[in-house]
Amino acid sequence: MGAYILRRLLLIIPTLIGIMVINFTLIQFVPGGPVEQVLAQLQGEGDAFANIAGGGDGAGAEQFDQGGGYQGARGLPPEFIAELERQFGFDKPPLERFLNMLWDYARFDFGESYFRSISVVDLVLEKLPVSLSLGLWSTLLAYCISIPLGIRKAVRDGSSFDSWTSGIVIVAYAIPAFLFAILLLVLFAGGSYYKIFPLRGLTSSDFDQMSAFGKVLDYFWHLTLPTIAITLSSFAGLTLLTKNSFLDEIRKQYVVTAKAKGLPEKRVLYGHVFRNAMLIVIAGFPAAFVGVFFGASLIIETIFSLDGLGRLGLEAVVSRDYPVVFGTLFAFSLLGLLMNLVTDLTYIFVDPRIDFESRET
Q: Which stretches are transmembrane (predicted)?
């Protein structure tokens, strides 16, 4: 087992390098880099990317004018442009910049944000609690709902309960998370009906003055609507997965034999079927958490005005804050790869009969 874990950990290194190579190469072809952004602001042109995409002042959609300089650099001394390039590191060739970045990342030195005067690590740690809260609680809530409901649907397969709950699950799966989030805001956050939950933020303005119990209540009060919005789309698929997994196990011969021996139905279900059927469901928890953590955070954070990693990534891409873009990409990729390993280890924990080591030999 130790050799398998070591091989998986070593495999992470070339995978991370491949991800960074692809994204670094793509960035080289994106117009409106950080230097162009600064020059556009100095010239009072707003967003450099918008000017490039819209044709700017008629010079076309190229990042450089016919004289070889930046479009936004007209009237600015070349020395100033060269200093900007040096500050942003663009005075070096792309290959050297990429190798320097990999060396820094190998030492977990992600640099400093171009426009926020804060290190990327501190910036990520500042935004992490919001996204971590959304991912953790929505995943736990989805599992708490889906597992009992899926088991119940499998036991009563074909009944009226199975039919009408399937209808609810299908409708929930079909509703986009952002649309349900807006509906929750309108209904319960001071829209046209009730003002029960706060409209934005993760805590209240007087959070620091609250007692410990008051802080916990305030935290979950703010987290209720966004967590429900994310859970709606994730619990539907998990419920069907649980049901189908249990149905597959219930129809196997060992269950028929256990029932024929006179074992009570609950003992057969929870003593024999449960561990085998829940293997794929429980072992998929790390992957489900990462999926919610990455997938729904941007939209939900934007709708509920939560300052998390999703909004941070979007703002970094728009402003061409490359240290933040590549730093978060590296961290997210590393987390995702480690979670894949944790998923495999969870399979072994749930069912010790699984041996990845022997499968590879």
A: 9-30, 130-151, 163-189, 219-242, 277-304, 324-350
| Residues 263-275: tens digit of each pLDDT | 887 888 877 787 7
What is the pTM (predicted TM-score) of this model?
Answer: 0.72
The encoded tokens of residue 111 equal 């640099």
Number of domains in the chain: 2
- Buried (b) or exposed (e) across 45-68, using 16+ Cβ within 10 A? bebbbebbeeebeeeeeebebeee
Query: Is residue 129 a contact partner of residue 202, using CB atoms and an 8 Å limit?
Result: yes
Alpha helices (H) in 193-284, listed in sequence order? 212-250, 253-260, 265-268, 274-277, 279-283
Q: Yes or no: say if 124 and 327 are a contact pair by the CB < 8 Å rule.
A: yes
18: in domain:
no
State how far the Cα of 285 lies from the Cα of 279, in Å rounded to an integer. Answer: 10
Q: pLDDT by residue (tens digit) across 56-98?
A: 444 333 344 444 455 555 556 777 777 777 777 777 888 888 8
Instruction: Find tokens 């009226």 and name the residue.
Output: 160
Measure the CA dihedral 229/233/235/238, to 10°: -160
Whole-angstrom distance, CA of residue 180 vs CA of residue 182: 5
